[in-house]
Amino acid sequence: MSAPSMRDAASAVRPANGPDHESPRTVTLAWYGLAVLLMTTLFALVVRQMLSLIGPSLQTSLGFTDLQIGMLQGLGMAIFACVASYPMGWLADRYGRRLLLAIGVGIWSLATFFCAFQDSFGGLFAGTIGIAIGEAGLAPIVYAMIPDLFPERKRNTANLIFYAGSLFGAGIGMALGGAMLEWLATSPAILPAWLAEVDSWRIAMVAIALPGPLFFLLVATMPLAKHGASSALAHLGDDGAALGFVPYAKAHWRTLTCVFGSMFAMAVAMTSGLIWFPIALPRAFGIDPATVGVGLGTAITAATLIGVFLPGIGLRLGQRAGGVPPIKVASFFVWLAPLPALFLPFVTSPFQAYTVAALQGAMGVAGSALMPGVIQDLAPPLLRSRILALLGIVNALALAASPLAIGLISGQIAGPRGMLHSIAIVSIPSLIAAAVLISLAQRPYAATVRTVRSQFPGAEA
Fold it and tell me: How far is CA 192 from the centre of its chain?
């Protein structure tokens, strides 16, 4: 895009009202919009968790093997969500984020309904692909819409609320799905006679698909403020498309490499503990897996609670210190994450291992919670969904790499603590790499943000 046309785009996204002239109605509508996005995300998480919860029922009623269940829950969801993430982001940037998010809600609702009537692995696999495609754009589009709702001074608060809601929403989704299946199993007499012979998992899938039209309407009609690029997309036409991702990526490759490289390294470390601790601790200490589940679950809950509150405290202290940018606050927490991990090879009890996991997890959550805001600031408004889509791709790649790396290393280390040492061997260098990269990112990141804001003044409203 030439300089004049870039300036035309900038004028198109410039907000009509400055940040100090927000009316009470605008503020109310912004928080209403965030509530809609949170509820929609919870709806998606219930659908996603239900796919895990109905696994035993699928094996009983349809005779699926463990491999087939794993393909439904892993391959169908992870791979296709990763593949669809960037195209969904491109469509959202090009045609409107609210529209694409509503379409995504419709796709995953229809796919969930479709799953309820399948009797074969192929049919259910196709349904999970539909769910994955529909949900692929959820996080990137939502984080891209938050700047459309809130001015910059409120953006980090909105990001942290949504991030915390997403973390706790996974547990809420599991609890709601489990409660529904339990109710269906223990209260068959309440159901109509024509449903008496229908598998409970089919009824559950239909039930969680039914709110789809409601959420479609809520998303499609939610108001957007004039703080972001969405209000300009309809007016820019082909000029908006001219600002391509490839030219932007070439100009700011150092920023993108350091930021997303740090996030990948952090995700590898966090995933390694989450996946392998339930296996490593029984081997190392001879304890029952159920005991590990309770202890590790408590540690993860504590880490989440601490981690989602620390960023807000860090940002407030940064403001008092003269306006420390969010990327520096995130860097502080990322540098703290390797410290507890260094003690992992030397733990002598399950409690010590849980403590390491909780401290490392809290620092990781605190650093990760600030990264969506960091990406929002470095992304031009008309590319925001696409760049945020890279976040989902990075997490998916980390989810694939981490278990493989630890599995390979563990096979070379004998003894009951071999798995524990393997987690340390993978996670400690990954955490250090994440900290180094986020530090290296700060100078190019500042330059990228200055460039974006000079070209799109409305992005800093």
Answer: 39
Going by C-alpha positions, the residue among 74, 400, 166, 398 that lies closest to residue 267 is 398
Q: Tokens representing 96? A: 């409107």
Q: For residue 381, what are the contacts with CB-CB under 8 A and spacing of at least 6?
A: 13, 147, 228, 229, 232, 456, 458, 459
- From CA 184, how far away is CA 182, in angstroms rounded? 5
- 319-374 per-position pLDDT tens digit: 887 778 899 999 999 999 999 999 999 999 989 998 998 999 999 999 999 999 99
Instruction: Name the residue among 61, 398, 428, 153 with its Cα closest to residue 263.
Output: 398
What span, in angstroms and rounded, lies between the C-alpha atoms of 142 and 148? Answer: 10
Return the CATH number of the domain spanning residue range 20-233: 1.20.1250.20
Looking at domain 247-460, its CATH architecture is Up-down Bundle (1.20)
Domain boundaries for CATH 1.20.1250.20 within the chain:
20-233, 247-460
Q: Residue with structure tokens 């563990």?
A: 410
pLDDT digits (tens, 9 = 90+) for 35-67: 999 999 988 888 887 877 787 788 888 888 877
Distance CA 368, CA 167 (A): 12
Q: Residue 441: what are its φ and ψ, rounded to 5°? A: -75, -20
Burial class (CB in 10 A: 0-12, 13-18, 19+), 126: middle
**Cα separation, 102 vs 216, whole angstroms:** 5
Residue 361, CB-side half-sphere exposure with 13 Å CA sphere: 23
Name residues whose C-beta falls within 8 Å of residue 205's C-beta, 6 or more positions apart in sequence: 50, 54, 112, 113, 115, 116
pTM of the model: 0.79
Q: From 28, 33, 43, select the one nearest 215 (Cα to Cα).
A: 43
